[in-house]
Amino acid sequence: MALLKLIQIEFLKLRRRTFVWIMMFSALIMPFLAYLLFKYAWDTGGDPVQFYKWSAFGLTLFIVLPVVLGILSTMLMYNENQYDMLKQLWIVPVSKMRYFFSKFFVVLIYSVCFMLVTAVGSVIFSIFLGDIAFDWQNVLFLIRKCLEIGVITAFAMLPILAIATTQNGYILPVAITLIYAFLGSIIVSINMYIHPLSSMAVIVARNGDIPGLNNTQVISIPLAFLSIFIWGIVSVLLANVALARRK
């Protein structure tokens, strides 16, 4: 079965899962909290990037989006693992790697859409503040960074999707997702190239144009990509082994 057909089937299945679409609203959590923070406690000084740092480039990058994608990855695998539907898929036949990558592309598309919603929410709430002038240059900067985050985070979450292929339940993958996300936010101050999420922060903040994401460590974009690549390859191999055992 062609990969595009498998992706289409995945989205058709997701239409019936209301919780998946409810999770998309969590993209507005940080823009709203950033609005409250700068409305009643802090002052942006008219700088939209200061606002975007809190609404899109902070906890959204390290915690909110990874946790949402981890839950989504678990949901994509849960029913088929729980009810042993994979045996029927192998009879079709469906390539195990095409099956895995169809799940990944759903996560990738969802991740990009999530960050676009975050970008739109950030712009709207920044306008509500009243002290930030609407500027297309800043808006395009926000959208570009959000697209980068959406794409790279999907690749950084490959280990969670691979772990989900090995489990029949959802408790362990979700628990590992929470640990994985929090470790990424902690390790970034120790070594940015050990964890995929911390490596992602290196790539996103490579030009030093996001306040608070600058680091005293030596910046190496190739090393950051290499870290994400190695974790991704190991994840794909793990998924291949796990799916091969489900006959």
Description:
This protein is mostly helical and 247 residues long. The mean pLDDT is 83. The chain starts with a helix and ends with a helix. Helix 5 (59-82) packs antiparallel against helix 7 (96-129). It has 12 helices and no strands.
Task: Spell out the key features of this protein.
247 residues, mainly alpha, 0% strand, globular
Average of the residue pLDDT scores: 83
Total count of strands: 0
Residues in helix, %: over 70%
Radius of gyration: 19 Å
Give the helix tally.
Answer: 12
Q: Work out the strand percent.
A: under 5%
Overall 3D geometry? globular
Summarize the SSE layout with pairings.
Blueprint: H1 3-14, H2 18-24, H3 29-40, H4 48-55, H5 59-82, H6 86-91, H7 96-129, H8 136-156, H9 158-165, H10 171-187, H11 196-204, H12 221-244
Helix pairs in contact: 1-7, 3-4, 3-7, 4-7, 5-7, 5-8, 5-9, 5-10, 7-8, 8-11, 9-10, 9-12, 11-12
Brief overview, please?
It contains twelve helices and no strands.
